[in-house]
Each structure stands twice: as structure tokens, then as C-alpha cells.
Design a protein that fits this description.
Radius of gyration of chain A: 19 Å
Largest sheet of chain A: 10 strands, mixed
Keywords (chains A, B): Isomerase, tRNA processing
Oligomer: homodimer
Family (chains A, B): Belongs to the tRNA pseudouridine synthase TruA family.
Strand content of chain A: 25-35%
Number of helices of chain A: 5
Largest interface: A-B, 15 and 16 residues
Shape of chain A: globular
EC number (chains A, B): 5.4.99.12
CATH class of the largest domain in chain A: Alpha Beta
Distance between the termini of chain A: 13 Å
Organism (chains A, B): Alteribacillus iranensis
InterPro entries (chains A, B): PsdUridine_synth_cat_dom_sf, PsdUridine_synth_TruA, PsdUridine_synth_TruA_a/b_dom, PsdUridine_synth_TruA_C, TruA/RsuA/RluB/E/F_N
Order of helices and strands of chain A: EHEEHEEEHEEEHHE
């Protein structure tokens, strides 16, 4: 058996998220179907760096799976892609060590959230941006974002109902980029709680509109109360952009 | 009755083109349904600057319709948009003269055709670009395009089966812009025959790949034979960008 690590992009629009669910179209099930075809009917399970919700996209989700097949690294993407629908695409694959785990070994993730701020919606971006036609104070949003950077208990920014115990995460960086009529939030951290990116963006947008002040963020974090933070913005503006792993010693391959 | 001229954008992906067809989802029928609702059930017909085919998009299609309602210009878009699905959007509307005709009065059209030239498809642009992962000689394509500019008989660039008699059109300009991994063809002319833009782009791409030489284009035009030109590229890369009209004397409004 060989363990393969692969980078995959998908358009979340027509998916009920990453994870297999009965009767639903999910990214995981499409990829497993494709791999099962390549393996002549024997089921192959894939494990991702983390689930993504319905309508959330990925530019660089990472997953692993085990295979008895000896296919050169560079041929794997084409082999899988030939069995995938047009909204999922494997970008790269490589043989990795048997102990590599796409979820547990991830040390950093980058998410991008796209917001359309013009007064009229560009319908061609409706699946990939939040349409938010309000004047925003970007400077205040950037200040507020600085309060979120660092190691904090992010209970206030986690959707309730999660069974995760440890709510402490480290956010390395939040960039707010202006690109013509679009705002892009680029968030990097060692991990994100359930809906954490979407609640942070929702809160920053409320700061932008003047409903909250930048310095409110510290109190908000301290309160450890989901009710204090802003709304959860919709999934369709969110992209899982990159997952990083520790550099591994290549002799592990032997 | 008042005649209203409106500018409309649509994502052609899920439409069988502009024109009403029985049992098909078309842009015209969605807009007429919306207008009929505003007019409490009485049917309102709209006339566009021209049809667009299935999966062809519009950034600025122009249409006109007649109405007995007195709604200020700036309120029309919102009124119509509130009854439209999310893939059609009215950008602007204004009262015009009773003799204005969206099709017959158009003096210039601009189309854009988008081509993705990277080796791996960006799935997020799959509905809006032709994926064409081949090395292209852009300089040769630009030279070839110059041969198409001007007043010519474009029979070689018109899909067969049309009942149009006069095949002479004037192409004002063809720009080929490189934007990262994308090529954009911007074509302006006084009018385009059926599939003319798509056949011109298909032919220019063949020049880019070295299958045709730039100077072949003149012969091709002279041949007046659809069989000599390149393939028709798919509709989903095509956008009707703008339609221009003569400036009209404003006293006509009275």
C-alpha cells in the first residue's frame, strides 16, 4: 500500500459540502467514486484536511488516500480527473509516508473570503462572492482585524453545537485587500473552529459599517459568547485556499 | 404608452439563449414574465438588439418594451429585478422615443471572448472561458486579426443555414489582450453574422497554434466558404459586452 497526498480544487456551489452524506452530492463522495473506478470497484476512502460546508469552495484542499496501485505521481491527477465531474479538479498528487495524515498533520490553513461591494451585483460572481453593497470603513476593519490576530480563545467566533473542547487557536494574519469593487479577506491560522472564518468576516463587516468599533473586538473575545459576535456570512464567498504541513524528512519514503 | 430602453446582463449558463422557445428557459421569457407580473398579468413583449445563443452571456444587452406605466427611469431596474431570477439583472433603464428600436437602431456592438490558456483548468471560470491549454503565437494572431478588420464579405465566417442575404459587415477593431493566464478577444463591429464572432475567434486560435498563417485570412475571406475558416468555439466563452446607438435628439421625448 502507498499513501498518496493530493491537492484538490472544487466549486462548492452544487455540493452539500465535503463530507459524505447519504443521498447528498458531496465532494468526498465524488472523489471516492472516481478512485473506486480506478481501483476496479474496491472502495477507496479519502481523508481531507478538514470538512468544508455546503457551497464553500476550495482552491487547495489537501487529502490523502491509500492505494495498492503503482502510478507515477504526475499521472495521478489525470487518472482521477478523468472520472470526476467538472466542478472538482485534482491539481497535484504525490506519494507520501504511511503516517502522513491530511487532517492531523496540517499546521496552517489559509482561507479567502470574497465580498462584492459595488452597488449593483455582478451576477457572474454571485456564486463566489458575498454581495454587500454598503459603504465600509476599511481602516476600522483593518484595526479590528489586528485584535483577532494572535492566540485567543475563539468561543465567541465558533458556531454553537460543536463538540470541540479546546477553543484556543492562533490566527497568524488577516489581510483585507481591495481589488476594484471587491474586498478580499485573507486569513491564516493554525486552525479554525466551526464557522470561525465566516463569523470573523461577518463581525469585521459590521465594524466596517460602524455597527461595532475596532476596540469592541477584545471585549468580544473575552466574553466567550457566540451571541456577541457578528453574523455568520454565507458559505459561497469562502474559499479554502491552502493547507500547509511540516516539512517531512524524505528518507521516510523508503 | 411609453417606450423603455433597458440595459441587461445575464449569465447564459442555464439559458437556451435569448429568444423565447416553447418549453425552454430563455432570457427573453424570464424578462417578459417579470414585466407581465409588473403589468398585473398583461403580457409585455421585449425586443433585444439581437439574439444570443445558448450559454452566451451578456454584460450589456440592450432591449426595449412598451408600457402604460409611469415609473421613473431609475426605479425600473429595481422593479424588474425583484421579479427576475439571480442570473438576469437589469442594470439601467430610461424612457426613450416611440420610434427607438433596440435591434434596427444599433450601430455598433462589442463582444468579448475569453480563453483560459493555462495548462490546468481553473474550474471557477469553466462557465465563462474556453479552456485551451495550447501554446499560442499571439503576435501571429494579432496580425491575422488585422486582416479581419475592415469592411468585408464575411460569408466564410457565417454559420450556414442563415437566411441573411447581405454578408458584408464592418469590423472596427479586434484587440487580443493578455491578462495573466487568460486571453481576451475584444471585437467591435457594426454588426456580426450568425456565429461570426465564434468562428473568427476559432480561426484566430488556429493561427495561434500554427495551423493557419496570418496571411491565410485574406484568402479565407475571398473564398466566401464557411468550410475554409476555423472551428466555431463554444458559446460559454462569449459575452455581448456593449451595444451602441446613434445619439438621439432629446426633443423627440416631447
Amino acid at each position: 500500500m502507498q499513501r498518496i497526498k493530493a491537492v484538490v480544487s472544487y466549486d462548492g456551489t452544487d455540493f452539500s459540502g465535503w463530507q459524505v452524506q447519504p443521498e447528498k452530492r458531496t465532494v468526498q463522495s465524488e472523489i471516492e467514486k472516481a478512485l473506486t473506478k480506478i481501483h476496479k470497484g474496491s472502495h477507496v476512502e479519502v481523508t481531507a484536511s478538514g470538512r468544508t460546508d455546503a457551497s464553500v469552495h476550495a482552491l487547495g484542499q489537501v487529502m490523502h488516500f491509500d492505494t495498492p496501485l503503482c502510478i507515477p505521481d504526475e499521472k495521478w491527477p489525470k487518472a482521477i480527473n478523468s472520472h470526476l465531474p467538472e466542478d472538482v479538479y485534482v491539481l497535484a498528487a504525490e506519494r507520501t509516508t504511511a503516517d502522513f495524515h491530511a487532517r492531523f498533520d496540517a499546521i496552517e490553513k489559509e482561507y479567502i473570503y470574497r465580498v462584492q461591494t459595488n452597488s449593483q451585483p455582478d451576477i457572474f460572481r454571485r456564486r463566489y462572492t458575498l454581495f454587500y453593497p454598503y459603504p465600509l470603513n476599511i481602516e476600522n476593519m483593518k484595526q479590528a482585524a489586528e485584535h483577532l490576530v494572535g492566540t485567543h480563545d475563539f468561543t465567541s467566533f465558533c458556531a454553537s453545537g460543536t463538540d470541540v473542547k479546546d477553543m484556543v487557536r492562533t490566527v497568524y494574519k488577516i489581510d483585507i485587500l481591495e481589488d476594484r469593487d471587491e474586498l478580499q479577506f485573507v486569513l491564516r491560522g493554525n486552525g479554525f473552529l466551526y464557522n470561525m472564518v465566516r463569523i470573523m468576516v461577518g463581525t469585521l463587516l459590521e465594524v466596517g459599517r460602524g455597527k461595532k468599533a475596532p476596540h469592541d473586538i477584545s471585549e468580544l473575545l473575552a466574553a466567550r459568547d457566540r451571541g456577541k459576535a457578528g453574523k455568520t456570512v454565507p458559505g459561497h464567498g469562502l474559499f479554502l485556499a491552502e493547507v500547509k504541513y511540516k516539512n517531512r524528512v524524505s528518507s521516510n519514503y523508503a
